[in-house]
Write a structure and sequence with these properties.
Number of domains: 2
CATH topology of the largest domain: Rossmann fold
Strand content: 15-25%
InterPro entries: Adenosylhomocyst_ase-like_sf (IPR042172), Adenosylhomocysteinase-like (IPR000043), Ado_hCys_hydrolase_NAD-bd (IPR015878), NAD(P)-bd_dom_sf (IPR036291), S-Ado-L-homoCys_hydrolase_CS (IPR020082)
Pfam families: AdoHcyase, AdoHcyase_NAD
Shape: globular
CATH class of the largest domain: Alpha Beta
Largest sheet: 8 strands, mixed
GO biological process, one term: S-adenosylmethionine cycle
Protein name: Adenosylhomocysteinase
Strand order of the largest sheet: 9-8-7-10-11-14-13-12
Function: May play a key role in the regulation of the intracellular concentration of adenosylhomocysteine.
């Protein structure tokens, strides 16, 4: 079997962790049981570029149970859990091309390795795989029925491709499913980001000034959890509606240049470049802790910070200290990459259960409906989205009401008035 991982001897530890996560993924487990019986992806080759975590492992196992030939590579150089990669190779015979801390050349070599398998379905987290296919491996596009995309950042890139009419096959925006972004982005990112910051720094959040850049669903989650731990949360935004929402939710809202002067912790979750830029770094106070939970490592201008620094050192694992000319120290977590995955373990399995249920069902949908789909970005069909919610509630032992025939008729009629 062709694969490239750090150390196959880590497999036993990884297997236990995969099994631990699986206990909290009942929706995906039900889909796996159906896939095992029906084999809806029989003979299909899936190339997945996702964070190599215990939750992702359970998705890959589900796809293989559905009959797919599955190949996995990492969507971020620092998010790979090497023991999980080893377990997938040894115990499930799923080829993995990912090593924690791999350099840029290795990262792209791994992307090309899974594309070499001539996939029929692509599965992305950030759109690096599909972007590479469109830029350098266009000869493979004719083999592809469609793809799926997990993140806000990736969906933005794909919609830009569709707008420019260069997208060569349909893609399902899994991120836009209600059962993904309302839960994964908000509760998953909120908890795992705080987890990563605490593991890296062991600093007290209570009583601190905690700056959240961006108030999308990820920003909402981070702000919510930081406030829950006693922080004075400040939000920065460029969107007037989101800024207004943050104000109404009880947060202080101000420009980053003002927040930079008073913040103790900073988290960027915007998907944009240089959100914390040189002018912000110049006014930060001594000891400021800067981190990112957006997909790419572009939200903090690290090049400018490096140029400003007179010396740097790795003072703790996942903490780099930048000493500036005036003696101030600024601390950057996890090289400005996803702090929740680089310094912690990513989202808890309970929320990834819904996200990856959407991934599995969307892959099945793309394959079954490829001849009907245009070369554009689609939302997850409502029936799949609501089915995931129904299964999750069922697994949690929660029951809800059903509309009566009278209520259904009332809601569908225009004739009823006051």
């Amino acid at each position: 079997m062709d694969y490239h991982i750090k150390d196959i001897s880590l497999a036993d530890k990884g297997l236990l962790r995969i099994q631990w996560a699986e206990k909290d993924m009942p929706v995906l487990r039900q889909i796996r049981e159906r896939f095992k019986k029906e084999k809806p992806l029989k003979g299909i080759t899936v190339a997945a570029c996702l964070h190599v975590t215990t939750e992702t492992a359970n998705l890959m196992i589900t796809l293989k149970e559905g009959g797919a030939n599955v190949y996995l590579t990492a969507s971020n150089p620092l998010s790979t859990q090497d023991d999980v990669a080893a377990a997938l190779v040894k115990y499930f015979e799923i080829p993995v091309f990912a090593i924690h801390g791999e350099d840029r050349d290795t990262y792209y070599a791994h992307l090309n390795a899974v594309l070499d398998k001539k996939p029929n379905i692509t599965m992305d987290d950030g759109a690096d795989l599909i972007s590479l296919l469109h830029k350098e491996r266009q000869d493979l596009a004719s083999n592809v029925y469609g793809g799926t995309e997990e993140t806000t950042t990736g969906v933005i890139r794909l919609k830009a491709m569709a707008k420019d009419k260069v997208l060569k096959f349909p893609v399902i925006a899994v991120n836009d499913a209600y059962t993904k972004h309302l839960f994964d982005n908000r509760y998953g990112t909120g908890q795992s980001t705080i987890d990563g910051i605490l593991r890296a720094t062991n600093r007290l959040i209570a009583g601190s000034k905690f700056v959240v850049a961006g108030y999308g669903w990820c920003g909402k989650g981070v702000a919510m959890r930081a406030r829950g731990m006693g922080a004075d949360v400040i939000v920065t935004e460029v969107d007037p509606l989101k800024a207004l929402e943050a104000v109404m939710d009880g947060y202080r809202v101000m420009p980053m240049i003002e927040a930079a002067k008073i913040g103790d912790f900073f988290v960027t979750v915007t998907g944009n470049i240089n959100v914390i830029d040189k002018q912000h770094l110049e006014v930060m106070k001594d000891g400021a802790i800067v981190s990112n939970s957006g997909h790419f490592d572009v939200e903090i201008n690290l090049k400018a910070l490096q140029e400003m620094a007179v010396k740097t050192r790795d003072i703790r694992e996942n903490v780099k200290e930048y000493t500036l000319k005036d003696g101030r120290n600024i601390y950057v977590l996890a090289e400005g990459r996803l702090v929740n995955l680089a310094a912690a373990e990513g989202h808890p399995a309970q929320v990834m259960d819904m996200s990856f249920a959407n991934q599995a069902l969307s892959a099945e949908y793309v394959y079954k409906n490829a001849d009907k789909l245009e070369k554009t970005v689609y939302k997850v069909p409502d029936e799949l989205d609501f089915e995931v919610a129904r299964l999750k509630l069922q697994a949690m032992g929660v029951q809800i009401d059903m509309l009566t025939p009278e209520q259904i008729e009332y809601l569908s009629s225009w004739e009823h008035g006051t």
